[in-house]
Amino acid sequence: MAGRGTVKAHGGFNANNDAEVLFKAMKGLGTDEDAILQLLIARSNAQRQEIKAAFKTLHGNDLVDNLKSELGGKFESLIVALMTPPIMYDVTCLRDAIKGAGTDEKGLIEILASRLPNEHNDDLEKDVTGDTGGNFSRMLVVLLQASRQQGIQEDLIQSDAQALLAAGEQKYGTDEGQFITILGNRSNAHLRRVFEEYRKLSGYEIEESIQRETSGTLQEVLLAVVKCARSVPGYFAESLYNAMKGAGTDDQKLIRIMVSRSEVDMMDIRAEFRKRFATSLHKTIQGDTSGDYRKALLLLCGGDDNDLIRVSNKHILAFIFHEMCSRFREKKYFSRSYKNMKNREQHNNHSLLDLISYRKNKVL
C-alpha cells in the first residue's frame, strides 16, 4: 500500500522551525487553530514526533500537553491522535474500548480485524479477556497475538475450505474453534483463495455460512475479518459510511479511521467509498461535520473525488462533442458531394467508389 496515503513526509522539513510555528500559534491570547492543523497534517507521523522532541528542547514543555490546553472537543481529540505514534495509537484505542463501564466491541473488532498491533503491553491481553468472554474473546486474543502466517500456503487451501465446511454447514451445531483458527491465523491472500474454494465446494459464500452458523459479537468479528481479507480499503469505506449515515456521527470511529489510514491507503478508501456509495468521502465529511474539526478531516481526506469525476466527465463530453461535430461536417460533405454529382449527372462507378472510400477513411 506504499504511496497510497494522502499524508506524506514534508520536503525541506525542519523540526525546530515547525516547533516555533506551533509555539507562536499557541502564544498569548487566542489560538491559531488553522496554523496548527495546516502544519501538522502536512507532516508525516514520524516528522510530528521530531517536532514534539524539538518543542520540548526549545521550550521545556510537552507539545501534546500544550495542544490539549489550547484546543477542545473533537478537534482536540483529532490533533492528539495525529501526534500519537501509530502503534501507540492502536493500543490507546484498544484500551479506550475496554475501559470504564461497558465495552466498545465494535471498536475492538475494527482495530484487531483490520491491522495487527505487534507491540503492546502484556497486560492488554488480560484486559481484553477480562472485559469480553466466550468465543468472541478467543477470537480477539488470536488477532491480538498477531500470529498470522505469511503468504499463500497452497497445500492448505483445499483442506482449510473443507474444514470450514465440515465445521459449519455439514455439522449439527457449529465448531466455532475451526472458524477462529483458520480466519484468525491465515493471511488475507490465503483466505481469499480459501473463500473461492469454499464457494466451489459448498455453493455458498463464506459470509452466508458465517451468518447462518454464528451469532452476536463472534459473528461480527468473523465477518469483519472476511471483509478485510477481501478488501481492507473496502472495509474502511463501509465503516466510514456507517459512522456518518443517519442521525448523529460516530466521531470516535471517524477520527480513528481518518488518522490511522491517512498515511496508509486513504486514496484506496476514497475510491472504494465512491464506488460503493455513489458519492465522495469528501462530500460526506463536509456535510456531516463543522468548524476546524471539518477542516482537519477534509485535509486528511485529501480531495473530492466528485470534483475529479466532474473534470473527467467535462473532458469526455468535450471529446464527444468534437467527434460529433466532425462527423456532422463529414456527413454534410458526403451529402453535398453526392448531390453535386447527381446534378451534374456524373455519378458513375468511379466517382461513387471515390466518395465511399473517402467516407470510410475519414468518418468510420
From TrEMBL:
Keywords assigned by UniProt?
Annexin, Calcium, Calcium/phospholipid-binding, Repeat
Molecular-function GO term, any one:
calcium ion binding
SMART domains on file: ANX
The organism's superkingdom is given as Eukaryota
Q: Which PROSITE patterns match?
A: ANNEXIN_1, ANNEXIN_2
| GO BP terms, alphabetized | negative regulation of coagulation
A GO CC term attached to the entry: cytoplasm
Q: Which Pfam families match?
A: Annexin
Q: Which residues form a coiled coil?
A: none
Which PANTHER family would you find in this protein's record?
ANNEXIN, ANNEXIN A5
- Tell me which family the UniProt entry assigns to this protein: Belongs to the annexin family.
Q: What does the entry's free-text domain comment contain?
A: A pair of annexin repeats may form one binding site for calcium and phospholipid.
Q: What is this protein called?
A: Annexin
Annotated gene: anxa5b
